[in-house]
Please model this.
Amino acid sequence: MPAIPWVIVPTFNEAENIEAIVAAIRSALHEAAPEGYRIVIVDDSSPDGTGRLAARLAAEHPEVEVIHHGRRQGLGPAYLAGFARALEGGAEYIFEMDADFSHDPKDLPRLLSAVRDGDADLALGSRYVPGGGVEEWGLLRRLISTGGSWYARVVLNLGIRDLTGGFKCFRRSVLEGIDLPTVRTKGYGFQIELTYRAFMAGFRVVELPIVFRNRRYGKSKMSPRIAGEAIWLIPQLRQKRRHEAPG
Model:
C-alpha cells in the first residue's frame, strides 16, 4: 500500500465553506500526492447541514469520507476521531487543518514535503517565523494570539514560536508515540498539547511559514471558555513534565 497523506478536517457549521475547502484540498494534493490521498471530515452534528453536504461529497469522491458525531464534542475529540481513522487506515502522513480557509490548502505540499523527505516528524505551519504572518486581524486579536504563543513558549520553555497553530502534518510515528488516548483538551489548547507532547517525546518539530487569514464565511469558534482552557492547560503540562523528570 502506498504511503498516502490523510487530511483531517473538523467541522461545525461550515456549510458555506465545506464544498470549496474540499475542492481546494483535492486540487493542492492532486500533484503533490499522485499516489493518492484521503480527506476525512469529522462533523460535530452541525445544525446548518454541513454533515449532509459532507456526505454528498463523500458519495461523489471516493477519497472523501465523513465521521458524524451524534453531538457536539469539540475540536480535540474531532481530531482524535480523525487521527484514529487515519491510523486504522494505514496513513503514514496525517494533516490537521481548519475548514474555513484560514489555512491555505496551497501550503499542504510544503508541509507534506518536509515530513515525507525526512526533514521533520511534525511540520507546523507557523505564523510567527520569518515569512509567516496573519492578515485581516484587528489589533486585539493580534495581541491575544501573539501573547498566547509567547506565554506558552515561556512557561513550557520551548523554542517553538507558534505553539497554538493548528495547521500540521504528522508522521505516523508521532501520533503513535504521544499517547493520544490520554489527551483530554477539547478546545484550542489541544494544539498546544499535541505539539508539546511531540517535542518532549523527542520528535523533530519544524516550523514552516504560513499566512493565516480570517475565515471566508461563518463565525469564529473561539470563545472565552476555549481561551481559558488553553491558559489553564499550559502550567499543567509544565507541572506534569516536572513530575515525570528522572530523579
